[in-house]
Design a protein that fits this description.
By secondary structure, this protein is of the alpha/beta class. The chain has helices spanning 68-92, 102-107, 109-117, 137-155, 171-178, 226-245, 264-277, 288-298, 312-319, 327-334, 345-357, 361-370, 377-380, 386-394, 402-419, 432-442, 447-467; strands at residues 2-3, 26-34, 97-100, 121-124, 161-162, 183-184, 194-198, 201-205, 250-257, 283-284, 337-338.
Length: 472
């Protein structure tokens, strides 16, 4: 048995209506990453200088040395860039969320005071602006705990949101296990918040962005002018706004850094974008914590028994009758590489149908033979499975006249005599007259053609049955 942990389905074709406050068509959320003073530096006890997200082309870590130019670029973000952005957002009356590195906040009390006076949300951006990918679980767990402790000490309240950025495969799980966070943003996998189950905890995830992000000024391919940044943001906004007008409101995250967008030639594009969106009705510009509060209230999580988390006995017990009297299909499907994408009716149907299709012809014939005649003797005797009873009743086959019952009995016999298996049809796709019409039409097919059609109908019946017990 293999379980594939990645979630490749999300909300699928039918995402929920966000129901943003005031009927907003799009939520545009600005994040300002405050990392200055928390980056790699031997002064901070690190082995080398910083090399990530700066205007130094091809920067590399300097082992055991301070990198004066790198340090001064980060210092620009704290000394000048932050204040330029503070003036821009307070002047536009748009609140932002700060992703604050705890050690950086501790080294910049004036900027911290300005964030608080503007009523900006200050979420945690970890203890230090360093890579987590090579940390062992215990080391990363301790770093998370220390980030929360220092953040609370410096800010005066604990963080309610978390974003590491340079995370490990364990980060989201460890932060969830630490508890106390209204949301975590270390994903880039959706345009809407969603819930992630971790043990007994339901953790809200608010996905972030690396593309509507000024980090692209420091990476290739990326932006070289403020106008390019504005153009990208405008295009993204226009698409999302149009979707919102069509009833599918989404969220647009915009990632910013003091040392990058805080430069005069870059911030011009951001100013242009803010001016642009302020010309539209139905645009909500919240802090991230407000999105979390709204989602928790409007879209609370609802758990259900997920097939891929069941043991074999439970799995087969729940889904062994989806293909009529053929639990071996569920037994084989249990051994597949299943994951979150198979916890829906569509996903699990695919897994079960694969095992049916890959079975021998004799095995598939056995499944066909397990199906009862339509309105036949088993139905009259009340000996159908619960699924078959409900399906036939829904098509009115439990309320036949004597003439209709005689017709079905005769046609069932003729069909079996010719093809060697019962007439099978997904009755939920039909009514009584169309079932009879299909009977008349299909009985004239060759056995090969009719075997293929019967198998197709068996799969369709299974699909309906799964939709009765699982989300689509």
């Amino acid at each position: 048995m293999t379980r594939y942990p990645r979630d490749m389905i999300g909300y699928g074709a039918t995402p929920p209506n966000a129901q943003w406050p005031g009927g907003a068509k799009v939520a545009v959320q600005f994040v300002l990453n405050f990392e200055e003073g928390g980056e790699n530096n031997i002064l901070h006890g690190d082995a080398a200088s910083e090399a990530f997200l700066s205007d130094i082309p091809g920067a590399a870590p300097w082992q055991g040395q301070r990198h004066w130019n790198m340090e001064s670029i980060y210092e620009y973000g704290a000394r000048a860039g932050f204040w330029r952005l503070h003036r821009l957002f307070t002047g536009a009356e748009i609140p932002v969320t700060i992703y604050g590195v705890a050690s950086a906040l501790a080294r910049c009390p004036d900027q911290l005071a300005a964030m608080k006076s503007a009523d900006w949300e200050i979420a945690s951006h970890g203890l230090k602006w360093v890579e987590h990918k090579d940390m062992g679980e215990d080391e990363e767990r301790a770093a998370i705990a220390e980030a929360v402790r220092l953040h609370t000490e410096v800010v005066g309240s604990r963080p309610r949101g978390w974003y590491t950025g340079r995370c490990s495969v364990n980060t989201v799980r460890l932060v969830t296990e630490a508890g106390g966070f209204d949301y975590i943003s270390d994903t880039y996998d959706d345009d809407l918040p969603y819930w992630r189950e971790q043990g007994e905890r339901d953790q809200l995830i608010i996905p972030y962005t690396l593309e509507a992000n000024d980090m692209r000024f420091a990476t290739a391919p990326g932006y070289t002018t403020g106008e390019q940044f504005f153009s990208y943001l405008k295009d993204a906004f226009d698409v999302l706004y149009a979707e919102g007008e069509a009833g599918a409101a989404k969220m647009m995250s915009i990632g910013l850094h003091c040392r990058l967008i805080g430069r005069p030639g870059k911030i011009a594009g951001l100013k242009r974008f803010i001016d642009y969106i302020q010309g539209f009705d139905g645009v909500w510009c919240p802090r991230r914590i407000e999105i979390a509060e709204h989602w928790a209230k409007t879209h609370p999580h609802q758990r259900y028994a997920r097939p891929t988390r069941m043991d074999r006995a439970t799995f087969v017990g729940n889904y062994g009758s989806i293909f009529e009297h053929s639990p071996w299909i569920a037994e084989r499907a249990f051994e597949l590489e299943l994951g979150p994408a198979h916890d829906t009716a569509t996903g699990l149907h695919n897994a079960l149908a694969r095992m049916f299709r890959s079975a021998s012809q004799a095995e598939r014939l056995g499944v066909l033979m397990a199906h009862p005649d339509l309105a036949g003797k088993l139905a009259a005797a009340g000996r159908l499975t619960a699924e078959s009873t409900g399906e036939q009743a829904a098509a009115g086959l439990d309320l036949l006249t004597d003439d209709e019952r005689e017709t079905f009995t005769r046609m069932n016999g003729d069909y079996v005599a010719k093809h060697g298996f019962p007439f099978i049809i997904a009755v939920r796709d039909y009514d009584k007259p169309s079932i009879l019409a299909a009977f008349h039409s299909r009985i004239n097919n060759s056995r090969e053609v009719e075997f293929a059609e019967a198998c197709k109908q068996v799969e369709r019946i299974a699909e309906f049955r799964l939709r009765d017990v699982l989300p689509s």
